[in-house]
Amino acid sequence: MTTFDIVSARESFPALKQSQVFFDNAGGSQTLGTVIDSICNYLSKTNVQLGASYAVGQKSNALYSAGFEAAAKYINASPDNIVLGSSTTQLFRNLSSALQFPAGSELVISSIDHEANIASWLDLAKRRNLVIKWWTPKTKENPKLLASDLPELLSSKTVLVTCTHASNILGTIHDIKAIADAVHTIPGALLCVDAVAYAPHRQIDVKALGVYGPHISMLYASEHGLQATASLGHFFNPSRTLDNKLGLAGANYELTSSIPSVFNYFGSSPSEKWAAIEKHEGELQGTLLQYLNTRTDVTICGEKDADTKKRVSTISFVVKEKKSKDFVEKVDELSKGEMGIRWGGFYSNRLVNEVLGLGNDGVVRVSMVHYNTVEEVKKLLGLFDQVLGKA
């Protein structure tokens, strides 16, 4: 296994040269310097409408195409099967507008997902007169989406099942392969997975079953999903690809052109780099979870085990007899604003309110990625001791 070089990793992100500690990465990680340079170069030299035949136009076309191809390669997909967009919320909205199911068809919707993977399907059900079946974990203690829950929810009328790969609050990794196998026992049924909170932590291979860069999202469709998706594009454009169907004038040019810089960050052996990242993040989450598990005044929301096969390094908790808001603001005060943790529901309000039963105050969330250090985690725990008192 390749040894993870934390010094080199941190040098790749210009934002880390300041005193701010970034523990809010589930809301958006920092940007590679090479990506920033790529965006600047594109806007400075090749910022023209795609499709032109003149010299700069051809260069712009090539940069955009290279970015699109790199995005597909990143998840082991064909460029025909992906579309890039401004956000996952927007892409799911576009997708829900392009799926056409008969009235009375059934949707199985996870109740622990980010609202991006819920609201679009509720709207689709309302527009198409579809039946909603909620997929809710059977326990509030470490709630998980299990493939074994699905047989009682699936039927011959099931057309779509939705779920998260890893919750942006719980951090728990779900067995998507097992879930997909269960869903696909129903002929024609589709599975829609939100992998936003998973992709920054593990390598993704869509054929076997995000990125540190600009704020851009990607939606992949299998061949079956592609065929089930109607086109939202202009009538004169071909609808052979997912981008033609859902792209709606194309993704942001300069952000798309920067994607190869993200791919290059992982070097000639991406799998080895990802394995080293997983090991390092395991140390980060192990340090934090070991502390939280010893505290009788803290309840971890989700997986308490630091095993990297069970969870990613997004960790949420609540403190007995303390509001999450007050706890975070006290950490802000003690660190003079330099320790970036958050509180709230993080657009997973149904999980927070209905499954965990926590109300509007939500959770305290510490979301780490590979450029964070064990030293930063220990500094955070020192602040926790000041707020809570030593155990």
From TrEMBL:
Signal peptide: none annotated. Residues 21-380 form the Aminotransferase class V domain. It comes from the Eukaryota. Pfam families: Aminotran_5 (PF00266). SUPFAM superfamilies: PLP-dependent transferases. PANTHER family: CYSTEINE DESULFURASE, PYRIDOXAL PHOSPHATE (PLP)-DEPENDENT ASPARTATE AMINOTRANSFERASE SUPERFAMILY. This is Cysteine desulfurase-like protein.
